[in-house]
Structure formats: C-alpha cells, structure tokens
Amino acid sequence: MLRDTKKHVCAQCGLTFRYPGELEHHKVAHTGEKKFQCTNCPKAYSNWDSFRRHVNNHKVPADKYKCKICGDIFKTRNGLKRHTLHHTGERPHKCPHCPATFTVPSGLRCHLLTHTDEEKLQCPICRKPFKRNAALKQHIQYIHHKQKSLRLLLLPQSIPAETPAQTTHASSPSQGTTKQSTSFDRATR
C-alpha cells in the first residue's frame, strides 16, 4: 500500500520531498548558489554530482573521444556514442505504440508519456496537471514567476493538502469531482 511520505515542503514553491536532503538539493534552484568551485577552471556547480563529472573531464586526454567522421571531440564515451548516431541516422529506441524512433532512451521515455492520459504532477499554485517534471518546472518559471508575492501567500498552509490519489500518483483524476474556479485560476491559465 502506497502512502504519502513526502513531508518536506519547499517554502518558496510548495514542492514536497520525501527526504530532507532532496529538499536541500532543490533549494539551490531558488538561490542559484554554486558552492562547488573547480580548481582547474572558472566553472562552479550547485550540486556535487555535476561538479565531480566536470572535474573528471579535466583528467581525460583531449583527443580520447574524437569522432572519426567529423573530428568533434567529446568528454565522455557516451557523448561520442550519442553523437555518432547523428552521422549514421540510427535511431535504435523505438516506440511500441507508434512509428516514432529516438537516438537516446530519454527521448523515448519523454515520448511515451504522450501515449497516456496520466498526469501525475500538479502545479502547487494553480493545480494545472502535468505529465513531466520538466514541463511543471517550466510552467512555474514562466507562468508564475511574476507572482512571487501571491505564491508566498498561498504556500504552504493555504493550499489544500494533497489527496491520497495525488500522492500515490493515480492515473486519472477522481470521478465526480468538480473544480471551483477562482479569479487566480483564471488569471494563471
């Protein structure tokens, strides 16, 4: 039985997280703080994993991952492998529902969401549903970015608690429920 274990709420945007470390990692999105500074170049990073990958790239010989077709140089073997697919035209990741094909698995994963009615994510401000986290983040950034004072009034206490269907990622909205439209809802559409 799934239950809501996301108890760590971001005070700035209302997103919830299962673990305190996830919330701390998320807060950097609001502050833009980059506390991991490379000692070999001016680049700085907000999270450890990106920083570590970058530092490891300084250790790679300049021509280790060189494209034999066009001469472009890549920092990782996977980068070169993905690049080579563009030359060959190969699109090995096929959608099982339609003729679409993709060069990388992430492209297929995003595409597969178009074949479902599931909208697992919801904007904490206007409650608009989304299938992909990236789309939700983009929505908040571009639609609600000028409504910071309104967001702060709404979060977190005045936004209704998530229903069990929302927290367990139900595949469809509850049947028979209606949504009351407010002036805020109409303004954010």
The name of the CATH topology of the domain at 65-114 is Double Stranded RNA Binding Domain
Give the biggest sheet. Answer: 2 strands, antiparallel
Distance between the termini: 35 Å
Total helical elements: 8
Please tally the β strands and state the result: 10
Q: Which stretches of 5+ consecutive residues score pLDDT under 50?
A: 155-189
Secondary-structure content class: alpha+beta
Average pLDDT figure: 73
- Taking strands numbered 1, 2, ... along the chain, how are they ordered across the largest sheet? 1-2
Give the name of the CATH architecture of the domain at 65-114: 2-Layer Sandwich
Quote the beta fraction. 5-15%
Order of helices and strands: EEHEEHEEHEEHEEHHHH
CATH superfamily caption of the domain at 65-114: Classic Zinc Finger
- Helix fraction, binned, reads 25-40%
The level 1 CATH classification of the domain at 65-114 is Alpha Beta
The radius of gyration computed from the alpha-carbon positions, rounded to a whole number of angstroms, is 21 Å
Please provide a written account of the structure.
The protein is of the alpha+beta class and 189 residues long. It has a domain at 65-114: 2-Layer Sandwich (Double Stranded RNA Binding Domain). The chain has helices at 20-31, 48-57, 77-88, 105-112, 133-143, 148-154, 164-167, 183-188, and strands at residues 8-9, 16-17, 36-37, 44-45, 65-66, 73-74, 93-94, 101-102, 121-122, 129-130. It has a two-stranded antiparallel ribbon with strand order 1-2. The chain has a two-stranded antiparallel sheet with strand order 3-4. A two-stranded antiparallel sheet has the order 5-6. It is flat. It starts with 7 loop residues before the first strand and ends with a helix.
